[in-house]
Amino acid sequence: METILGLCIGIGLSAACGFRVFVPLLVMSVTSLMGWFEPMKGFEWLAMPSVCIALAVATVCEITAYYIPWVDNALDTISTPAAMIAGTLTTMAVSSGEMSQFASWAAAIIIGGGTAGAVQMSTVAVRGFSTATTGGIANPVVSTGEWISALLLSILSLLVPVLVVIVVLIMVVWGVRWVRRKKQESMNSSIV
């Protein structure tokens, strides 16, 4: 049961990494310092005040950069692999000690990295659509929604992880359907 709960927390945190790379790590660090969350062995560095400060600075820089026109689109090329790495790390930091090291890392890479990558790719698609249809004017609204989603998902992942997994699955299904619909619409409009 502890393994499943750890994976649920990892899925939620890695999905949050898909929205903003540093927000879930900052939430994990703050909650570690407050004694509400204990990272797994090897990830005790999350509970260091200097790491928390560094993550806070990185979070502010990341959030701010997404409000700068065209920089937000450029950041997506860097954020995609970074989100997958962060998703892997967050999942590994909450994985249970019941699994072997190999199984833990394999699950973290596949589940954490895969979830973060899927969410990140959907945000890239939304930002691309926003840029194409509004010339980037609506991108700050998209950016605001993304960092708020990252914060809420991170907090809720630690409080109600099973509910977050259900929400993440619904979001992924909705995102895939949205992207398919937009591709179909663009194909139909290019045919005409």
TrEMBL record:
* InterPro entries reported for this sequence: DUF4126 (IPR025196)
Q: Which residues cross the membrane?
A: 12-33, 45-68, 102-127, 147-174
Q: Which Pfam families match?
A: DUF4126
Top-level lineage group: Bacteria
Zinc-finger: is it a keyword of this entry?
no
Query: Which key words tag this protein in UniProt?
Result: Membrane, Transmembrane, Transmembrane helix
Which stretches are annotated as coiled coil? Answer: none
Q: Which residues does the UniProt record annotate as the domain DUF4126?
A: 7-181
In Swiss-Prot or TrEMBL terms, this protein is called: DUF4126 domain-containing protein
